[in-house]
Amino acid sequence: MTDEPVSRGAQSPVEYALAGGEPQRVGWFRFYFDDERWEWSPQVERMHGYPPGTANPTTELVLSHKHPDDYRQVAATLDEIRRTSGAFSTRHRIIDTAGETHHVIVIGDQLFADGGAIIGTHGFYVDVTPSHHVRQQVVSEAVAEIAEARSVIEQTKGMLMVIYRIDAEAAFELLKWRSQETNTKLRLLAAQIAKDFQQVDFSEVLPARVVFDKLLLTAHLRVEPEV
Length: 227
Prior knowledge:
By secondary structure, the protein is an alpha+beta fold. It is 41% helix and 18% strand.
């Protein structure tokens, strides 16, 4: 992930409305192997209970927020990432500074230097904490009308829900975050993800989730510009 997203054309007001504004339950991270340095987006800082711009994440701090029952799993995943420099996907719990527990999905891919060497991992967090109240503000009435007219978005949401075992709200947050992070129109990105997922070859058993992780993280690179 780069600091400047690949440009796919500025979003129109309709596209921004369709994306439902700024995502709150999805954010990015970077982890550099050499100096064990972490970077968190403001959304990931908030998930951990820190006001944006105040966290100074280290591996020790990252692990300190893991739920005690999930600590060993996450620590082992970090060791595996350092050893293999591979992609990963994990679902676990974190505890924020206020003591609240969040259920998160973390997906990471290889981070390359300009010369092509693997220098770390980068990816995103999705907060999938079960909610007792449906937040109606996530999708405005206008957004709902547009979403109904664009069935491909609903189709892609359904695919994300099945593959990542998340609810519709989290799936939409994930989709709109990828749209905004890569500066790709939501409907075009959704169509590409749906196309990519449908082309995965399998018979009765779904492939390993890392196959879909790769497609999700790179779908924007395959979107053809609008004429």
